Amino acid sequence: MTYVYNDSTAVVGPLAAFAEPHTYDLCEPHARSLTAPRGWDLVRHDGDFAPPPPTTDDLVALADAVREAARPPAPPPRSDEHLPGHQTGRRGHLRVIPPSH
């Protein structure tokens, strides 16, 4: 799906085989039910919405996701990493430090 702002037109078609700027991939139910903003035209592809063929980008993204899921959790912070008088909560890669009063 993409918008052609100069022509006030929304275009819904099959998934692209490669990344294109300013386009959005929609699942089939959303592609079929999409409506254009008031006053705009909607151009819809009449054929089937077949998935695009797999690309190396898909395989790389899958491999990255598997590596991320298999990564061991970060070790807890050492006691010398804390500021005196402050307690910190740790969740994932973020650290919450309460405001000082």
Features:
17% strand, 101 residues, single chain, 5 strands, 2 helices, 3-stranded mixed sheet, alpha+beta
Short description:
The protein is α+β, with helices and mostly antiparallel strands and 101 residues long. It has two helices and five strands.
Description of the structure:
- With 101 residues, the protein is α+β, with helices and mostly antiparallel strands.
- It has one domain (1-73).
- It contains two helices and five strands.
- The protein has helices at residues 28-33, 56-70, and strands at residues 2-4, 9-12, 41-44, 89-91, 94-96.
- Strands 1-2-3 form a three-stranded mixed beta sheet, with no helix packed on it.
- Strand 4 and strand 5 form a beta hairpin.
- It is flat.
- The chain starts with a strand and ends in a 5-residue tail after the last strand.
The percent of residues in helical segments reads 10-25%
Sheet with the most strands, sense and barrel status: 3 strands, mixed
Q: How many helices in DSSP terms?
A: 2
Q: Spans of 5+ residues with little confidence (pLDDT < 50)?
A: none
User: What letter string, H or E per element, gives the SSE order?
Assistant: EEHEHEE
Counting helices, strands and paired strands, the structural category is: alpha+beta
Biggest sheet: strands side by side, in what order? 1-2-3
Radius of gyration: 23 Å
Number of domains: 1
Instruction: Let me know the number of strands.
Output: 5
